């Protein structure tokens, strides 16, 4: 009779073989990945076939039979997991896991890890799939649908008093749901993204920035604790004090070190109303001086962003449905046509039950009086706090109605050192980008010296200077167009921005980074690369996790590279 150990080994070997066979079957590239190399040498793949045309796997369930799951695997309805918001990269997974518990995720990752270095199987956490270049996809691997793990924060996970208030949320929770639940207690997270239909795990893997970040730092600066499933399938609770290395690795870590299953987010007292203000500049240096002045103040607006307007007509008429000119007569004399303009967008929060309206007005007047905008272009709107934070969703609904949401999104998001911003603006807004009709161009200053110093220990990469600018070109492409609104044109324009910046020594860093070569990834991480690689070796040594970024291939490559770089002995 076989010993319990050898029985276990046999069972495991059989399981491995069955799994490998199934993966080989599932890996058959029946969806055509048509390479259409464009000018930027990026690969564009054809969209996946509709579910009914997809190959039926022979008996893929067998490999997973021994996994005792609360949720389930799906092998046939995987088309959804092979797309993302970017609509340019399509990698079909072999299976989608719909977890109902953390242990579902842990046992799946552990299972893949235990298949060893020869297995090419990977696992990608998928939040809301709002990545741009396939980052939440797993070619022939397993996609974990994090949204099926959601656990409403109202179910007893909202805690604390005084400064220590927090909420425990699932990594698959949408920020809009976190907001709605915490508002029931008069509380809210401090730092946001502009759009809230993104998951907690998805934005914490990147950073999470918006107009509150100048004061509170990115979302990753407002997390007290995480629960993470590492690339070995271990479930680890981590914080600044407990398993700190893992905690800081995961924050901004592009999903490379673990899957966030729970996050403890700091909260503050929530306002209920927002005074939302837009003013225009035609002079970039006045605009940037004012932004930098506002972010330097202790008592400032609660939200500070901005955007660039190039070659747009009828701009102010578009605003009038939601913004009211402070002086309608003066505003009607302002003509925007053709000019490059810079819009400063700020907001002051208040509580309509406790705060005196006159005091709020006086604070706003005091702040505006020090600015140098074109006086006729002061526009004001009064909205609820929830309406303000969820503002992009309104735009989404409109675009969806017109069939303009699920189009290719060749976005380029950057951090520019403050000292180089004038040079960048003069070339990029002055000659490379000739109009802003393809989508908004965001621009706002951030003051890193105000952030919690721990940010430096996270995996987020930003330029070294205290003041940096976030600049995002959020273009939508018209699918079949070969003109200025077409994908190739916009990608070529993005490349020109990058080429100019490289040549001029701007020293930018990409946010939501996308690179196609390992050298470029090393360049991106710069002095953080060695730490990044060591962390990968510690927490995901077989490179099972987050293959969609294409930073690491499976174990062999990481090992080879570590040897080359002297981090491992060549044994
Ligand atoms: P996904 O796209 O599903 O995943 C993103 C990455 O995170 C993948 O690598 C994935 O594997 C990994 N991941 C997902 N879940 C987990 C998890 N639980 N644990 C570990 N890794 C995980 N970003 C900002 O910072 N500020 C903004 O204002 C902003 N606005 C946006 C507006 C729109 C309309 C869109 C589409 C995106 C915006 N983003 C913004 C970018 C957004 O933060 C990223 O696209 C983010 O990745 C999307 O989150 P998601 O939940 O859809 O994640």
Automatic annotation (TrEMBL):
Top-rank EC class of the record's enzyme: oxidoreductase
Name by which UniProt lists this protein: cytokinin dehydrogenase
EC number(s) stated in the UniProt entry for this protein: 1.5.99.12
Alphabetized UniProt keyword annotations: FAD, Flavoprotein, Glycoprotein, Oxidoreductase, Signal
Assigned protein family: Belongs to the oxygen-dependent FAD-linked oxidoreductase family.
Gene3D superfamilies listed in its UniProt record: 3.30.465.10, FAD-linked oxidases, C-terminal domain, Uridine Diphospho-n-acetylenolpyruvylglucosamine Reductase, domain 2
One GO-annotated biological process of the protein: cytokinin metabolic process
Species in which this protein is naturally found: Linum tenue
InterPro entries given in the database record: Cytok_DH_C_sf, Cytokinin_DH_FAD/cytokin-bd, FAD-bd_PCMH, FAD-bd_PCMH-like_sf, FAD-bd_PCMH_sub1, FAD-bd_PCMH_sub2, FAD-linked_Oxase-like_C, FAD-linked_Oxidoreductases_BP
Domain of life: Eukaryota
Endpoints of the signal sequence: 1-32
Cofactor(s) listed in the protein's UniProt record: FAD
Reactions catalysed: N(6)-dimethylallyladenine + A + H2O = 3-methyl-2-butenal + adenine + AH2
Molecular functions (GO terms): cytokinin dehydrogenase activity; FAD binding
Domain FAD-binding PCMH-type: 89-270
Segments traversing the membrane: none
């Amino acid at each position: 009779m076989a010993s319990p150990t050898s029985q276990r080994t046999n069972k495991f070997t059989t399981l491995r073989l069955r799994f490998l066979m199934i993966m080989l079957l599932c890996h058959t590239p029946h969806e055509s990945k048509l390479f259409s190399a464009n000018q930027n040498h990026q690969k564009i793949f054809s969209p996946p076939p509709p579910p009914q045309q997809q190959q039926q796997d022979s008996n893929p369930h067998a490999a997973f039979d021994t996994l005792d799951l609360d949720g389930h695997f799906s092998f046939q309805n995987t088309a959804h997991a092979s797309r993302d918001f970017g609509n340019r990269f399509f990698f079909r997974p072999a299976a989608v896991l719909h977890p109902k518990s953390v242990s579902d995720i842990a046992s799946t990752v552990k299972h893949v890890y235990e298949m060893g270095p020869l297995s090419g199987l990977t696992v990608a956490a998928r939040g809301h799939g709002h990545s741009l270049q396939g980052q939440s996809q797993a070619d022939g691997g397993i996609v974990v649908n994090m949204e099926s793990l959601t656990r409403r924060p109202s179910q007893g996970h909202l805690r604390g008093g005084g400064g220590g208030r927090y909420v425990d949320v699932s990594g698959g929770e949408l920020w809009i749901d976190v907001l709605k639940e915490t508002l029931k207690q008069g509380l809210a997270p401090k730092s946001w993204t502009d759009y809230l239909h993104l998951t907690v795990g998805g934005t914490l893997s990147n950073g999470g920035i918006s107009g509150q970040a100048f004061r509170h730092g990115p979302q990753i600066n407002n997390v007290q604790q995480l629960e993470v499933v590492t690339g070995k399938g271990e479930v680890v609770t981590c914080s600044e004090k407990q398993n700190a290395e893992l905690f800081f690795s995961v924050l901004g870590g592009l999903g490379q070190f673990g899957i966030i299953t729970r996050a403890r987010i700091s909260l503050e007292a929530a306002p209920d109303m927002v005074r939302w203000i837009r003013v225009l500049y035609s002079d970039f240096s006045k605009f940037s001086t004012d932004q930098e002045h506002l972010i330097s103040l202790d008592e400032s607006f609660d939200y500070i962003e901005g955007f660039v307007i190039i070659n747009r007509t009828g701009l102010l008429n578009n605003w009038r449905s939601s913004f009211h000119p402070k002086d309608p007569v003066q505003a009607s004399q302002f003509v925007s046509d053709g000019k490059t303009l810079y819009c400063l967008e700020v907001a002051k929060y208040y509580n309509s039950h406790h705060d005196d309206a006159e005091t709020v007005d006086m604070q706003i007047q005091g702040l505006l009086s020090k600015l140098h905008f074109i006086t006729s272009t002061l526009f004001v709107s009064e909205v609820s706090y929830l309406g303000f934070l969820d503002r992009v969703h309104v735009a989404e609904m409109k675009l969806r109605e017109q069939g303009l949401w699920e189009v290719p999104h060749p976005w380029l998001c950057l951090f520019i050192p403050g000292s180089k911003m004038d040079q960048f603006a003069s070339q990029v807004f002055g000659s490379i980008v000739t109009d802003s009709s393809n989508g908004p161009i965001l621009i706002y200053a951030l003051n890193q010296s105000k952030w919690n110093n721990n940010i430096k220990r996270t995996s987020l990469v930003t330029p070294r200077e205290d003041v940096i600018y976030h600049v995002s070109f959020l273009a939508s492409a018209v699918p079949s167009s070969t003109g200025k609104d077409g994908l190739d044109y916009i990608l070529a324009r993005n490349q020109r921005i990058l080429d100019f910046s490289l040549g001029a020594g701007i020293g930018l860093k990409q946010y939501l980074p996308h690179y196609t070569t390992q050298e470029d990834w090393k360049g991106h991480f710069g002095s953080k690369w060695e730490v990044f690689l060591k962390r990968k070796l510690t927490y995901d040594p077989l490179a099972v996790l987050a293959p969609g970024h294409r930073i690491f291939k499976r174990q062999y490559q990481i090992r080879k590279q570590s040897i080359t770089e002297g981090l491992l002995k060549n044994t």
